[in-house]
Design brief:
- The chain has about 100 residues and is mostly helical.
- The chain is built from two helices and no strands.
- The chain has helices at about 10-20, 25-100.
């Protein structure tokens, strides 16, 4: 084995390795395509997450509005029935008072 003082890197070695490790046009194109695909996937996933949460919020708001409308209609029915029942009782009482007693 050579001693560290005998291991020298010359300019010709560097030039050979520099030329050897240069990426080809195909490698450059593939690297750029991979980079762009990765960015596209990240942005699409972020957009999909944002859109999904927006749709979910809209569904919750619609469901809440439907429950509110159903509750309002039920309350109106109860109030209408109570008023009708009070009117009916009053009407019945007034008819009983107006009727001749036997």
């Amino acid at each position: 084995m050579k001693k560290s003082s005998e291991l020298r890197v010359t300019d010709s070695h560097l030039q050979r390795y520099y030329f050897y490790f240069q990426p080809t046009e195909e490698q450059k194109r593939l690297a750029a395509q991979t980079y762009n695909d990765t960015l596209l996937k990240k942005h699409f996933k972020a957009w999909l997450s944002f859109y999904s949460s927006k749709v979910e919020k809209r569904k919750k708001a619609v469901a809440q509005m439907e429950r509110a409308v159903a509750c309002h209609e039920a309350r109106l029915k109860v109030r209408t029935f109570q008023r009708w029942y009070a009117w009916k009782c009053e009407r019945y009482r007034s008819q009983q008072e107006a009727a001749p007693s036997k």
